[in-house]
Amino acid sequence: MQFLASIESTLPILFIIALGYGLRKKRWFADSFGGNLSRLILNIALPAGIFVSILKYLDRDKLFSLSDGLLYFALVTLLAYLIAFLLVKLLNVRRGRRGVFINVIANANTIFIGLPLNVALFGEGSLPYFLVCYLVNTLSTWTIGAWLIANDDPTLDPERRQGGFDWKKLITPPITGTLSAFVFLLADIPLPAFINSTLDYVGELVTPLALLYVGIVLADAGLKNMHIDKDVAGALIGRFIVVPTLMIGLITFGGGFLGALPSVEAQTLIVQSAVPALAVLPILAHAANGDVEYATNVVTISTLLFIIVIPIVNSLLLV
User: Mind listing the domains of the chain with CATH numbers?
Assistant: First the structure.
């Protein structure tokens, strides 16, 4: 059952990537289309999608009642960053790849893959627990994660690159959408139905367009160039082995001082810790003049491996 659910959740994603690949190969998309698509996603569709999703799936009572799960997922995310930084040094990951490498390990594709998978495996009742993962992952991605990729730009002047934290880089459309949603949520400000519907429609563009973009970049790079080198292998080991192991260990041994979790919540946190890399990483790498081919490579391979990884994780949960 878990195996079929993981396949059903993953195949549409792979098919849309394949569609983008095929249409680009047939020259339906101009050379400038990929760049235009990335700007549309990052500046318009993604902020709208984040804003609507937070208001749709969260309310103030749910937000304050999920503190234990929030603590677990936040702690594992911080540990994942630490391990990712160590692996960057150990593997000598080159500039232009480092930000993507760290993001693959620390941040997961919770909204595009994790949400449908969680509902398929554990039902609608698991949505409040899923939102813990979504909240931490969204804040992590569009603060620390996005900043790391932007600061990894190999074209930046070395002195500027080594400077302090550039707070202006946090004022991105996705994080603005996130913060705005929390203002509306906590202040209990009603959103007019027509605005909500408009933002919902625009936000729904994110998943297919981001996956089409991955296919376009993959077509430009060439399938024959998709391979596993040490940087790809290190990122995949971190995403699929290290982070789920951290989560399982923390839930198993941390109940005494962090608080025990309900079974479905624990299972949700573990599954969400094992979903593949963010589909928007190639877009972020492109915006920062990074290694887009590497980002596309690791996103595509992690999505393919996901079909195998999730049934294994779910089998362990049943032991």
Answer: 1-317 (1.20.1530)
